[in-house]
Amino acid sequence: MNKALHTLDVKERRKAILLSSSILAGVLMIAVVSFGYSFMMAMTFEQMGRMDLLLAIMMAVTSIVGFFTTIYKASGVLFSYKDYDLVMSLPIKTSHVVASRVLQLYVLNLFFTLIVMLPAGVVYAIKVNPETLFYLLFLMTLLFIPLLPIIAATIIGSFISWVSSRFKASRMISLVLTFVVIIALMVGSFGLNGNEQVLADMGTELADMIFKLYPLADMYVDAVCSYRMSSFLLFIALSVLSFMIFATVLGTRYKAIHTGLTTSHASSKYIMKPLEASSPFRALYKKELRRYFSSSIYVLNTSIGMILLLVMSIALLFVSSEKLGELIEIPQLSHYLSTLAPMIVSLFVTLSCTTSSSISLEGNHLWILKSSPISKQTILLSKVAVNLTITLPVLVVSSMLLMISLRPGWIESLLLLVIPLIYACYSAMMGVIVNLKLPNLEWTSEVTVIKQSAAVIVSMFIGVISLLIPLGISLLLTHVNGNLILIGIGMIMIAVCLVMFRYIQTKGERLFRTI
Hints:
Number of helices: 24
Oligomer: single chain
Distance between the termini: 21 Å
Shape: globular
Low-confidence stretches: 189-203
């Protein structure tokens, strides 16, 4: 928005306005969906006479999501940013540097907290019609909800980075440990969802479960819903005091912690090997693959979808789709999985796009590629090849496992494999094109490019829309054979992929030269 207001380039202003409008529309859409979920839950809680559960659940959700998303980006935001040496050499207090990094984490989590909690607060106010004091307490406590999740996630994320740095292949160990923690937490949450007695009884059992798992939720509900000032002051005191201790310790030990996290094990043995020559494409592919696995944030953000797809495929071997439908209260889940499995698998694929940030991650080294005597088409296609290397093996294995568990016919099995493969090619090339249009080379932290850049947001939005439209058509045209619809979708997407490939060959190369 700032660029749109002050840039003199009309084309840049138009692009900035369009992007800002799209992001604002996306935020509003998420807020509307959040309001809808809160309203539906409120209808149930109103019948039970436990409207306080609405705020308790939404507060717990924001804390859990904030914890999940911070656990693997905290180390990158606080310690692994590109200009650390430059910033620490400036005549600035270390505490101010630490404060600026912690504030960035806080603002990101607060943003999500507002999107979830404000609609929930509006629904609560509509249903309960509380006293004026509610609004004051509700708005004040919003600012303190993200503090403890940030502390817990930062400690765990930093501990994982520190442990992994003690060994060879530290980045791989860090990735494995982070994936283990995330999957373990998700499996634990699924276990809670499967507690039929709790879900059947709801009411007191559900409240006790939330308050037992997260005691601050109990204080929060007492403060906001029951207007207890002792709980209000205790909630704020615990949050602020914990955060102050965390920030103080981090500030005094910042350089030592940074050194410990960034120190890695190096082998003392070095063996001279003969140099190998390879084609430009193969050399670029190897370079891009090394770059990908050198960033834990990059790998986590772009491969978590494929990991979840693999976990889901393995889980369905042991839990039937009918049983799973009963657990999550979707009676027709087995039917939906059988008919829409290709689109569901494709969704995981589109959420695992590495190319939407691959050009931006070149940063100030992009000039090396631009000046090299290599076809720019080769450079772009090497990035596409890395994306396919990440998605295709997991995709094929998961599709095979789903064929075993779902037992579809031979046509359905073929579509289950082919449709996601087409979307994998589509997602990889679409990410390159979007990143060519919306590059961001002036970054200091990889988190900015990988999680918050315009190219990543736009490519994810386009990928989801490209699935929602055919999914909506399939649900509307229930009288038409589903296989025919999927075949038609596949043919259209093949045509789109061919057009994008041609675009990369022609205009894509020119766009790369002008970045």
